[in-house]
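Per-residue structure
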Amino acid sequence: MAEAMTADPESEFRAQTGVDWAEVARLVLTSRAMDELEETRLVPEKKVLYQFSARGHDMAQVILGMHLRDGDAACGYYRSRPMLLALGVPLADALGSGMGLAGGYSDGRDIGVVFNYPNPGGAHALPMCGGVGAQYTPAAGWAQAIAYKSKVLGEKDDGAIAVVLGGDASCATGGFWSALTIATTQSLPLLFYIEDNGYGISVPSDYQTPGRDIAANLARGNCTPSADRACARRSGTVPRRVHAADRYPSARRLGLNRDQFRARHHDRATEARIDGAGIRGLCGPGGR
């Protein structure tokens, strides 16, 4: 009886999930320290010219990255560095590539927050592009390759998936809808991981998505051909809920819409323009 009364629900949760929460905390804090270093030193010194912070997006991305394995591939966008850290991108590369420094795996050709990471033996980060919406169709191609291996080549289906990350405003791009068409018509193992903070830079979601909820719209339509390929909207900030939704490989969920709160503006250049104009309050949940 005494043991039951003194049981710590949070301790039980940490034990049951199988997630290394100390590693989650380390990677989240590392990501935030890198953001702060860029904001306070490297941008003012003009050593980083393309800066996007990920505060508020980081925990969910780290947990997602820790669930991926060899055979999976992820295609992110300019705010996906926390997931890349979880996949194992070295800190020197994660910071130095944004400064155009030679010597890393990209030899200075990446622009910092936009990565490629072949990662033999682990989950792969497909080459990214700075263009909004450009990440979707490459991820659909990886999902097609997974299906081709099992259906055409006759190799065992080991549950591999492709994951694509994007902000809610990117759901208004042609790349998103092209990939959605490919994934749904062919029942591909592609997870659309949408980080929804309610704004595209300073444009509210009302002007991007009818009803402000792409997951609900797709769930009401004919975009989920089977029960194991559902669309859902979940918290991106509460650890218990984040983990529960990210245990997806066996479910091969079609779409996951994350409610996010970002603690910074869309990007450092936008923040400077807003501050210079004397405008306040656009930060909140702001940006793609």
